[in-house]
Write a structure and sequence with these properties.
The protein has about 120 residues and is mainly α. Helices cover about 70% and strands about 5% of the residues. The chain has a two-stranded antiparallel ribbon. Strand 1 and strand 2 form a beta hairpin. The protein starts with a helix and ends with a strand. The C terminus is likely disordered.
C-alpha cells in the first residue's frame, strides 16, 4: 500500500474523530481547542497525501514535511505539559512516514524509488 494512501486515511481519522484519538492518548487535553489542533493536523496529513499522490512526487520528497514535524512534536513532548503523550504519538507517526519515504518503497507495485 502506498504511503500516500495511508497518510490520507490517517488524516481522515484525525479530522473525523479527534476526540477518539485524544482519548487514546492518556493525560492529553480533551478540550475544543485540542480537538481543533487534531483536526488541523489531520487536514495537513490529508493535503500532503493528496498532493504527493496527485503530482507523483519522488518517494523521498514525500516525507520532507514529516522530518521537521516529527522533531517539533518531540520538542513539544519534552516540555512536559499535558500534550506529552499526544505529541509523542504524533512524532512517532511522522517519523514512520519520514522513514518510509526515505526508504523509497512503494509496496503497491514492489518497486523502489520514485517509480510507479
Amino acid at each position: 500500500m502506498r504511503a500516500s494512501v495511508v497518510r490520507v486515511a490517517w488524516g481522515a481519522v484525525l479530522v473525523a474523530f479527534p476526540g477518539t484519538v485524544l482519548r487514546r492518548c492518556p493525560h492529553s487535553p480533551r478540550t475544543r481547542a485540542a480537538s481543533g489542533v487534531v483536526r488541523l493536523l489531520g487536514t495537513r496529513r490529508l493535503a500532503q497525501g493528496l498532493v504527493t499522490d496527485r503530482f507523483s512526487a519522488p518517494a523521498t520528497w514525500q516525507g520532507v514535511p514529516d522530518g521537521p514535524h516529527a522533531a517539533s512534536r518531540a520538542g513539544l513532548a519534552l516540555r512536559g505539559d499535558g500534550w506529552r503523550t499526544a505529541a509523542l504519538a504524533d512524532s512517532a507517526v511522522a517519523a514512520l512516514f519520514a522513514a518510509s519515504a526515505l526508504r523509497g518503497r512503494d509496496r503497491h507495485d514492489g518497486r523502489t524509488g520514485a517509480g510507479r
